[in-house]
Amino acid sequence: MNDAPENMIYGHSTAESRWARLGPYYAMFPLKFAFETVKKYSNRGDYILDPFAGRFSTIFSGSIIGRKGVGIEINPVGWLYGKTKTRPAPLQTVLKRLETVYKEKGHYKKAMEEMPEFFRMCFCDEVLQFLLAVRENLNWRNREDDATLMAIILVYLHGKRCQSLSNQMRMTKAMGINYSIKWWKEHNMENPPEIAPYEFIKTKLEWRYKKGIPETNPDTEIILGDSAEVLPQIVGHGSGKFSFLFTSPPYCSVTNYYSDQWLRYWMLGGADNPQYLKEKYKGRFINKNDYYDLLNTVFGQCSKLMKEKSFVYVRTDIRQFTKETTIDILTKHFSGYSMDVCPAEISRKTQTEVMGNKSSEKGEVDIIMERR
Ligand SMILES: C[S@@+](CC[C@H](N)C(=O)[O-])C[C@H]1O[C@@H](n2cnc3c(N)ncnc32)[C@H](O)[C@@H]1O
Q: For a pocket test of ligand 1, which of 25, 38, 74 has the largest count of ligand atoms closer than 8 A to its C-beta?
């Protein structure tokens, strides 16, 4: 196997490693783990499948070392990161779009003044006007240049004061409205930092492109959608094509990817508060039957796509319900495979710990299956 050296993805010295880190996503795989697992369980030219792709580290890692891949993600924030890192638009076209949309901001003064208190405290006037212009004018679903620009704006939408567009906030998780307002007041931060948005985003774009853009396999599909609906369409023409299924499904009752990312989701046209998503698969996966149905449907469809000789690698929550449900479903659909279950190496906080869960049952498990 003639795979790329590790330094392609570690550190910040290559185009691949720089783009691989885009952007902050909740419960993301450590890059090194994604890269090494892809290397270990697949070969050049193989097809990899990830039906719960998050920020697409699995598919991206494969794509830079000659694998083909299909990743599916229901959350547009993760999808935009995946799409952009795999195929960023040329820098000059993105800068042109930035200039155009920045010029539009003059039309959004009144709209900015009418925004709720949270937004006025989170962003200075110029940034908020700019964001409103971006929100209405970028066609990020259909244009590559707009998708790239939007992805970069999403990365820096919130985070440390003066290192992002916002007042002090976590980078990976947007806090609630009342919590944030109270926190800013208590810490004498009612006034957001004065940031010049055009210059700020331009600098971030130029940094990201400084080493070039990654060389990715053109046979890489980054799909926005619900895997339960998308996979049956792939089954029609892709049966028996995939050598490696590598994924991490949502964990039952742990994370709500939408409310944790609500501010970025607002940026993409969503509501201006975090408590609104009741749609199936977009909440916190509290209903055990819905959770079972999702995994059962998705892994059932995936099993039809696998090659005769293939591997399955699923990282999931160690707690009983999620772990046992996942093992049961995988055993049912991948009946000719051997199965190893082992605790995942802890190299970061798990989904559970980030949520402040202090239960003794911590960590994740790796379920590794093989059909020879
Ligand atoms: C544990 S995270 C995956 C994180 C990923 N391994 C990474 O490194 O970024 C699970 C992902 O599944 C996505 N998801 C949940 N239900 C889905 C569905 N029905 N179809 C596609 N994606 C879904 C969530 O939005 C979330 O991004």
A: 74
Helix, strand, coil shares of the chain, percent, nearest 5, are 45, 15, 40
Are the beta carbons of 44 and 11 closer than 8 angstroms? no
* Distance (Å, whole) CA 137 – CA 101: 7
Looking at residue 356, its pLDDT comes to 44
Could you give the CA distance from residue 138 to residue 131 in angstroms, rounded to a whole number?
Answer: 10
Q: How far is the CA of 295 from the centre of ligand 1 (A)?
A: 11
C-alpha to C-alpha distance for 369 and 372, rounded to whole angstroms: 10
Atom 5 (ligand 1) nearest CA: 54
- Specify whether the CB–CB gap between 364 and 357 falls below 8 A: no
CA distance 12 to 274: 34
Which residues line the pocket of ligand 1, CB cutoff 6 A? 25, 27-29, 52, 54-55, 57, 72-75, 78, 226-228, 248-250, 257, 281, 294
Distances (CA, A) of 148 to 52, 87, 98, 107, 208: 21, 9, 10, 23, 11
Domain coordinates in residue numbering, the chain: 6-86+216-371, 91-209
Contact, 185 vs 117, CB < 8 A?
A: no
Nearest atom (ligand 1) to Cα of 78 = 27
Token pair listed for 53: 């792709």
Instruction: Convert the pLDDT of each residue in 321-339 to its tens digit.
Output: 999 999 999 999 999 999 9
Fold (topology level) of 6-86+216-371: Rossmann fold (3.40.50)
Cβ-count burial of 172 within 10 angstroms (0-12 exposed, 13-18 middle, 19+ buried)? middle
Lowest mean pLDDT among 180-189, 217-226, 279-288, 313-322: 279-288
